[in-house]
Design the sequence.
């Protein structure tokens, strides 16, 4: 029975729920229905997160967690497409199969064998493609994420290329396909399968993570191993990895060909994913430059003698060049002080001293510019699925 | 294998507990509610419905239901689909323009 309890949810709650009324900092730009539906929920191994759905679990990180460059494991967001999520018991016999038509051989690797490969680590942002979808206007259907469908962690494990090397990569390989242990509730639902271009799969920073921030991966974040693809959105970061296929063909799956696509050329990419492009759409790949104010939060009262604004900025790995903050609704902008980055792929923290402000309300905004000279746009580059919302955040505080 | 069984268990659990689901996510009382709860909660929690309200046009709600049938394999026939779409549009669709 215990197994079923766990599977049927993240919904098998161990903590209290609080209504959205107790989260006054939720963005007023979210749909009314989302604001009424979202609850703070505590699931096993996690602090209270904003639950958008419980089956499958979609749990958002509260904005207060982004005051630091590293997002703690127990506050890291959770995103699943399909309700058949594995429990720890079912993963007791876990191993990772690596093979395919463009592999020399098929091997099955245990967790111990993964640990015996050369290990590396990288600090990188894992961000849902649809992070911020709930804030776009007009609203589009989907999970209505605020800004917390993301996190930054230090990921540790073998490089994917060393894992692939155990099976041997033939010269005709073009893509590496990945699948995990999560499965549909309905037989007719397409399993969640994704692929990477061979060049990305062989890149030094692409790893099979077995630990996160020095601890085991939380179950809901992909225990016992997940793919880490720094610079690309989380749709490629397959959780509970069970099979890797080295293939001479592009993957033909719903999740590559129909979902997670953006209008061709609408967003900047460093290398792209040519084997999955078609005439009008590309697969979503590179994270776009973005930033966030983590303190103060929306609706908070601040001192008129001055206060510290803190937050984070990130992009696809070119790195953050500058962060500008407005305290007057965008009329004037001040340059924030950047802390040293943990890595080019990480959240980069910054701060700004406000100086004295007049009593009343103040609208704060933030805007980051990357080393690749990209700046957050004033108007969201609209796309049907609501991806890549990086319009500068706005929030209002009470100056008292 | 084992996960297939888990998937079936999950399906059974969800079908066996529509009342519990309904309590967790109270949908609006209107004709079609029972059908919506039974059909939609087989695969996902009902919270997806209020979460996506009220801003979707009738065309988009219809497209969502069609996607569930044709892409995700939901066993919903035409009559049931029409009932479900009617409910979603009237209870969770964008308010009609005056």
Sequence:
């Amino acid at each position: 029975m215990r197994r079923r309890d766990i599977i049927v949810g993240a919904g098998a709650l161990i903590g209290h729920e609080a209504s959205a009324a107790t989260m006054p900092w939720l963005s007023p730009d979210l749909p009314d229905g989302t604001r009424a539906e979202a609850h703070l929920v505590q699931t096993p191994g996690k602090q209270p997160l904003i639950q958008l759905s419980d089956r499958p679990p979609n749990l958002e990180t509260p904005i207060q967690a982004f005051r630091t460059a590293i997002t703690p494991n127990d506050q890291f967001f959770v995103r699943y497409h399909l309700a058949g999520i594995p429990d720890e018991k079912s993963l007791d016999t876990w191993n990772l199969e690596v093979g395919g038509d463009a592999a020399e051989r098929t091997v099955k690797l245990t967790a111990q064998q993964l640990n015996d490969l050369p290990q590396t680590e990288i600090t990188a942002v894992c961000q849902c493609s649809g992070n911020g979808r709930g804030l776009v206007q007009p609203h589009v259907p989907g999970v209505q994420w605020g800004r917390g469908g993301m996190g930054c962690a230090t990921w540790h494990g073998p490089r994917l290329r060393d894992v692939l090397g155990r099976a041997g990569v033939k010269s005709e390989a073009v893509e590496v396909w990945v699948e995990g242990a999560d499965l549909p509730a309905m037989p007719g639902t397409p399993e969640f399968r994704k692929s990477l271009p061979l060049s990305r799969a062989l890149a030094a920073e692409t790893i099979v993570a077995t630990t996160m921030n020095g601890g085991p991966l939380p179950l809901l974040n992909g225990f016992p191993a997940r793919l880490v693809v720094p610079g690309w959105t989380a749709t490629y970061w397959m959780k509970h990895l069970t099979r890797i296929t080295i293939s001479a063909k592009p993957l033909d799956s719903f999740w590559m060909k129909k979902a997670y696509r953006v209008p061709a050329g609408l967003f900047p990419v460093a290398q792209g994913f040519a084997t999955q492009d078609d005439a009008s759409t590309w697969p979503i790949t590179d994270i776009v430059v973005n930033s966030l104010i983590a303190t103060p939060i929306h609706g908070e009262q601040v001192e008129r003698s001055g206060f510290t604004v803190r937050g984070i900025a990130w992009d696809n790995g070119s790195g953050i060049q500058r962060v500008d903050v407005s305290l007057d609704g965008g009329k004037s902008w001040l340059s924030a002080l950047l802390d040293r980055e943990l890595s080019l792929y990480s959240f980069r923290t910054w701060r700004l001293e406000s100086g004295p402000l007049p009593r009343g309300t103040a609208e704060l905004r933030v805007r980051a510019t990357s080393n690749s000279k990209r700046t957050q746009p004033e108007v969201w580059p609209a796309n049907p699925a609501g991806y890549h919302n990086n319009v500068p955040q706005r929030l209002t505080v009470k100056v008292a | 294998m084992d996960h297939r069984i888990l998937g079936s268990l999950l399906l059974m659990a969800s079908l066996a507990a529509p009342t519990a689901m309904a309590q967790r996510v109270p949908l609006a009382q209107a004709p079609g509610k029972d059908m919506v709860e039974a059909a939609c909660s087989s695969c996902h929690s009902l919270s997806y419905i209020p979460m996506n309200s009220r801003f979707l046009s009738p065309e988009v709600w219809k497209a969502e239901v069609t996607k569930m049938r044709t892409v995700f394999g939901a066993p919903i026939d035409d009559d049931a689909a029409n009932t479900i779409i009617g409910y979603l549009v009237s209870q969770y669709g964008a308010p009609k323009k005056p």
